[in-house]
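Predict the holo structure. Ligand: zinc ion.
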Amino acid sequence: MIAVVTGADRPDEHPELVDALRAAGWTTQAWTPAEAEQDRGFPVGAQIVVFGAPPGTSPLLESQAFQEATVLYAYVDGARGTVGPMTAAGSAPCPTCLTDAIDVATPDPLLARWVAAGVVLEIETLHRRRAGTLFATSLSWSLQDDPGVSSARHHRRAHCRVPGCAEG
Ligand SMILES: [Zn+2]
């Protein structure tokens, strides 16, 4: 099961991600951040928890998910879409180390589709190879400023004491 915690207030507001996962054959359940806060068991039984917002947007939910499952971030900030980083205990830095909370602008729908496709491909890769490509790494596609694709590597904070936090 794939758990999706949407970045928006309504789970149906940006349906590309959930639609793409279901079309690829993954059982997918979506929560808004508010719903996930009400349902403390939301990550239990999930292979992957996808957050539709930058790391650090919902710190308590993200640390809870990190203890239970593999966590993948995927979101669109205006004219820039990002897939990753991904993290799991022992494999990459914890959500607190990855924190990059930004106020995201209205998503470009083209980028929402690219992000959704990227999430599906990463989950499929993880499933087939038992190894992901986006641990501690993110890919972004920008349609403004310097348009195109870029990647970023994310590091552990020195002296982080969160159990399972690791350099990717
Ligand atoms: Zn950490």
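The mean pLDDT is 92. Residues 57 and 155 are 18 Å apart (CA to CA).
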